[in-house]
Automatic annotation (TrEMBL):
This protein's name: TMEM165/GDT1 family protein
Pfam families noted in UniProt: GDT1
UniProt topology in membrane: Multi-pass membrane protein
TM regions (residue ranges): 42-60, 67-89, 164-185, 197-219
Originating organism: Haloarcula nitratireducens
Keyword Membrane in record: yes
GO molecular function, one term: metal ion transmembrane transporter activity
InterPro entries in alphabetical order: GDT1-like
Listed GO CC annotations: membrane
Family: Belongs to the GDT1 family.
Presence of the UniProt keyword Transmembrane helix in the record: yes
Length: 235
């Protein structure tokens, strides 16, 4: 451990995150959001949440789970998923209607953005677009992912290099998230936008149900499937 250098830890952290990012639910959330919102804004909000969580995980480690009981975060995440599924269905174009800009956010009749914080019903200022609710969604949605467990483990192993861990993880997470968002943003144009809305709503509906099942019965379909696939890999 004494032979480790700052740059070495950067590469270790980046490699560890790249190994677990495929199949993480937050990447699927980014893909779904990018069919409706500006992908750069989605990644900016998601990246802010990732950066904040990573810093907290590095400095506080497993204390985070004691301060923020997982059941409350899971419940809040499920509620946000339901809200986004509803918004996607509500704003889906009518059959035969001309395509509109899919990254324009949730629009009022006057063409202004109308994004509200769940429960509080507080309207996010138009200049922020969907940044705040997407940030909240990603902050809650990332809780419990393997990416967080990797960070906690690395922080315990390389306590002398907290900035290297943070830098390495951001170098992995942000580019992957950006590529993911841009791909699905452009990919959605090749299909009927109405169908893209319903597909995104179905995605959020699934995760909402999966979170509810996890809270109520302690079983997650998504985590079970991902775990089975990972166990079947030859490495």
């Amino acid at each position: 451990m004494s032979e480790a250098t700052w740059l070495t830890v950067v590469f270790i952290a980046a490699g560890a995150q790249l190994a677990v990012l495929p199949g993480e639910k937050v990447q699927f959330i980014i893909a779904g959001l990018s069919t409706r919102f500006n992908p750069y804004m989605v990644v900016a909000a998601a990246g802010t949440a990732f950066a904040g969580w990573t810093a907290v995980e590095i400095w506080l480690g497993q204390t985070v789970t004691e301060l923020l009981p997982g059941i409350y975060l899971d419940a809040a995440t499920a509620a946000l998923f339901v809200v986004f599924a509803y918004l996607l269905v509500r704003t889906a174009p009518e059959p035969g209607a001309p395509d509109k800009e899919p990254a324009s956010g949730v629009l009022t009749d006057g063409g202004e953005l109308d994004v509200r914080v769940p429960v509080l019903d507080w309207r996010v200022p138009n200049k922020m677009g969907g940044f705040l609710p997407i940030f909240a969604l990603m902050a809650f949605g990332e809780f419990g992912d393997k990416t967080q467990l990797i960070t906690i483990s690395l922080a315990a192993q390389y306590a002398a290099f907290p900035t290297a861990i943070w830098t390495g993880e951001m170098l992995a997470i942000i580019p992957v998230s950006m590529a993911n968002a841009l791909f699905f943003y452009r990919f959605s144009h090749a299909f009927d936008l109405r169908k893209a809305h319903f597909a995104g709503a179905a995605l959020f509906g699934f995760f909402a149900a999966d979170f509810a099942m996890s809270v109520l019965f302690g079983f997650s379909v998504w985590e079970t499937v991902v775990g089975a696939v990972a166990a079947g890999l030859p490495f």
